[in-house]
Write a structure and sequence with these properties.
alpha/beta; Aspartate Aminotransferase, domain 1; Aspartate Aminotransferase, domain 2; four-stranded antiparallel beta sheet; 38% helix; binds pyridoxal-5'-phosphate
Length: 406
Amino acid sequence: MPSFDPETLRADFPILSREIDGKPLVYLDNGATTQKPQCVIDSMTRFYSYENANIHRGVHYLSREATDAYENAREYLRESLHVPATHELIFVRGATEGINLITHGLSSQLEEGDEIVLTIMEHHANFVPWQVLAKQRGLTLRFAGLRDNGELDLEDWKSQFNSRTRVAAFTHVSNVLGTRNPVTEMTAFARERGVLTLVDGAQALPHGPVNLAAVGGDFYVFSAHKVFAPDGVGVLYGPREILNAFPPYQTGGDMIEQVSVKGTTFRAVPERFEAGTPNISGAIGLAEAFRYLSGIDWEAANAHEDELAAHAASELEKIPGIRVFGSAPGKVAIVSFLYASAHPHDVGTILDTEGVAIRVGHHCAQPLMEYLKVPATARASFAFYNNHSDVEIFLRGMKKVERFFG
Ligand SMILES: Cc1ncc(COP(=O)(O)O)c(C=O)c1O
């Protein structure tokens, strides 16, 4: 039976009991990466201590065991994410690699004059690969704008579609504004027009389970390190039929059917896109993180995170000269703000002296910064293991910033 008690869960994360210069660590940089529970760390230590072997094709016991652990991780993720039989789940290095794999695969299928619809809130990972592809293939990129509260302007997004639109790529959740996009409605709209969709789920999974069958799109990507799991591994999900028609992204061992001096034939997905030795322990750690997260009551966890973020935002807004970005209904617990009297880097540096970790800068979303007409923001991003004390220490740190610069 899933339950939620932030203090009990917090104890599962060893790093959260650290002190920084004698002060308790207040980790509010969860949008950049999340911390790992002991069970995830243990699952990887166990693999390297007792089970390590290379996978696939091995006849010895350890290799068979490691292969099973890797493939069982895939199966567990398939079940947890409700992957339909028509779709495949491929292990990649992360969201960035997943998106690059898709733009590479689509390259030969798109023609000059074809159009891609993006939104202005995309992370560079879901922006630059499309821009590069557009340049190579003579494609047109169209960008949907936002409403004043940071919500996607859905009417504007829909109006970007025309008879040349081939792909719509959009984030599930904005890493700067916390806006949660209506992805099911968006994938349905695109599908009715025969347009492929790619959803960037990097910031959605840290805030609760995602049902990919319900999202209903073609491609979906995310990074394990943002879901309380190891770095260097992530997931690409997509329709088998389309993926099998893509040329291989990388070639080499494990992804081939037959190799001779005359030529090579390639395997179908998932192996087609898992050339070389994959991140075996990473896949195992990711499945363990999903197992851990399945024990959490996410309704309660989201209410907790949202309350912390709402309290932080409303207190910040009381400081003269502070502007908070993004108040879309249903947004996730990310608070981006700009203080007129101090550069975000100074805000981050002063907070650091109090043991508070936030992120400052353009958050790999420079087109959004340009759109908002700001050079950078400071961002406090919350996870279920944050607590009221974290918010109080953060706000105390902001008082110090105010004393310095206000
Ligand atoms: C919305 C979004 N998409 C993609 C990425 C890229 O993730 P990664 O660097 O793990 O590939 C990030 C990372 O911050 C992100 O926030």
